[in-house]
Design a protein that fits this description.
The chain is α/β, with parallel strands linked by helices. The chain has six helices and seven strands, in the order βαβαβαβαααβββ. Bound molecules: zinc ion (ZN) (2 copies). One zinc ion (ZN) binds next to loops.
Length: about 270
């Protein structure tokens, strides 16, 4: 939902990259989240008129470790939600056919199959041939990409709805070949769409975003109190940190790119109580 809204420090060292391990094609769609998340996914999937075939590329989780493993990137701790489009095909073949890979149903308690996602193109094929080809496809083919979504597990009920809608707008943009970046969370064209699709007043949604962010911050602070306060020598903006920076970091307020002229300085270390 706001994967960058509260992060204005350019510091890739805190987001180490690892090899993505997305869920296997035959486990999709995968919903590792609450029933509320599943209900809103189905609701806004329909409302945004997303193709059923795209659900065979969809995996959703409320577990940050899942998302880290799937995408290879650690989430911003403040993120309330996140959408990641992950290309997965390594061959130049490009002829992958997800249409024959049927979604599995009910293999575990938390792996829900969305009721709206039951269109199975393999049904239209001769069953025997379909079964043989499907085995081959499962072994050889990959849908070529994944739609990966994270939804924070501690969101308020309205926050769950709006976050699901928000991440599906990103997914819809991607499906239409027009991914948008945020200019400013709560005030850009994506938030206009978000208000339109959910039918909620934009000001209510901005207040919700502030409230959810504050709650997330409080949760984090209880778990990991700040111990270091860095400051920009130019503008004075403070950057409280749980750990020391492992490398020089510059002020994102003064320059969105790394700029050695605005290196942050450690102002104080807060004693642990
Ligand atoms: Zn977003
Ligand atoms: Zn600054």
């Amino acid at each position: 939902m706001l994967s960058n809204s509260t992060r204005d420090v350019r510091d890739t060292s805190s987001h180490p990259f690892r090899v993505p391990e997305p869920p296997a094609p035959d486990s999709l769609p995968l919903i590792n989240a609450s029933a509320e998340v599943a209900v809103w996914l189905e609701h806004y999937w329909d409302k945004l008129r997303l193709p059923a075939s795209e659900a065979l590329r969809l995996a959703v989780t409320d577990d940050r470790r899942d998302f880290h493993r799937w995408t290879g990137r650690r989430l911003n701790p403040l993120a309330l939600g996140c959408y990641c489009y992950l290309p997965t095909l390594r061959s130049s073949d490009g002829s992958s056919s997800a249409t024959l890979t049927a979604p599995t149903t009910g293999t575990s308690r938390r792996q829900l199959t969305l009721p709206g996602f039951c269109e199975n193109p393999a049904n239209s094929i001769d069953e025997t041939a379909g079964r043989a080809v499907r085995g081959l496809e499962t072994a050889l083919a990959d849908p070529g990409y994944r739609h990966l979504i994270f939804v924070d597990p501690e969101l308020l009920p309205l926050g769950i709805e709006v976050t699901v809608a928000h991440e599906l707008i990103h997914l819809s943009d991607r499906v239409q070949g027009n991914p948008r970046k945020h200019r400013c969370h709560g005030y850009d064209s994506i938030s206009v769409d978000e208000a339109a699709i959910t039918g909620h007043d934009p000001e209510v949604l901005r207040a919700l975003l502030r409230e959810e962010t504050a709650r997330r911050e409080a949760t984090l602070r209880n778990a990991r109190p700040y111990r270091y306060i860095y400051a920009c020598p130019q503008c004075g903006k403070e950057y409280p940190r749980v750990r020391r920076y492992s490398r020089p970091v510059s002020c994102g307020h003064c320059d969105r790119a790394y700029n050695a002229a605005f290196l942050l300085k450690l102002r104080e270390a807060v004693p642990q109580s």
